[in-house]
Amino acid sequence: MTRPIRPAPLLAAVALSLLPTLALANNLEAPPGAPLWMHLAAAALLFTHIGGGTVGMLSGVTALATRKGQRLHRQAGTVFFVAMLATYAIGAGVAPFLDTGQRPNFVAGIMALYLLVSGWLAARRGEAKAGLPEAAGLVIALAITTAGVTFMRMGAASPTGTIDGSPPQAFFLFTIAGAFAAAGELHVLIRGRLSRTARIARHLWRMCFSLFIASGSFFLGQQQVFPEALRDSVLLYVVALSPLPVMLFWLGKVRFDAWRMRRGGVPVRA
Q1: What is the pLDDT of residue 8?
Q2: How far apart are CA 172 and CA 45, in angstroms?
Q3: DSSP-derived secondary structure for the chain
Q4: Which of 85, 137, 176, 197 could form a disulfide with 258 if both were Cys (CB 3.0 to 4.6 A apart)?
Q5: Is there a domain that residue 79 lies in?
């Protein structure tokens, strides 16, 4: 029997296969005089990146707003994962080939991919024992943290006070998220297993933070697409940052429910 093709790896493979076509591109546009296939490939990547981000944010909001574990939540989460996987893979894969400085975007794309995939696995894996995913995650998280610290130091020493147009403060995102993720991976590796509550919390914060990277990149990093009256407005900042308080709410609820079950004598499943 022929094994079914899973959509997530297929989309990632298609996106990655098109990345070399943009080696001379700027802003996901093929250079003038390039062959037609290169223009078509650039357009396909651009629309997939934008479309995936749009679908991903909408499905992410749906997943956050619905009851966890229910069918609609799982379906919305699946759409979010597939859409953002394509979006982040294109963003991280294309960034090194763009003419303009894209080091922050490259690291942000890698971090978003790492959080997305590890958060997805936390919900999908049946066993709770530590293994290769946590070991690989620790290496990636430490690399992200190191990149954040390095960029902050480079920005502070730069004559312009920035790295590729981003101030040193912008790299706190990499440093804090990377260090927190690394601590989580190390904790799991030392204990050798992950409790059910910790696994749910891991899934929640990583998926929510991945959504925050998308919302921040769009509502704060692409303000030129909004009417002038909304640019630099409080509303855009509120929308961009909204995944974070929602994340804290659900994390608190998960911990509170586990505490209440233990206090009531109900064993919490591992």
Answers
A1: 44
A2: 29
A3: -PPPPPHHHHHHHHHHHHGGGGTT-SSS-PPTT--HHHHHHHHHHHHHHHHHHHHHHHHHHHHHHSPTTSHHHHHHHHHHHHHHHHHHHHHHHHGGGSSS--HHHHHHHHHHHHHHHHHHHHHH-S--B--HHHHHHHHHHHHHHHHHHHHHHHHHHSTTS-BTTB-GGGGHHHHHHHHHHHHHHHHHHHHSB--HHHHHHHHHHHHHHHHHHHHHHHHTTTGGGS-TTTTT-HHHHHHHHTHHHHHHHHHHHHHHHHHHHHHTTPPPP-
A4: 197
A5: yes
Domain that holds residue 207: 7-128+194-263
| The pLDDT of residue 14 is above 60 | no
Count of beta carbons in the 10 Å neighbourhood of residue 59: 21
Give a yes or no: residue 189 inside a domain: no
Region of 158 (left: φ > 0; alpha: ψ -120 to 50; beta: rest) is beta
pLDDT at 225 > cutoff 70: yes
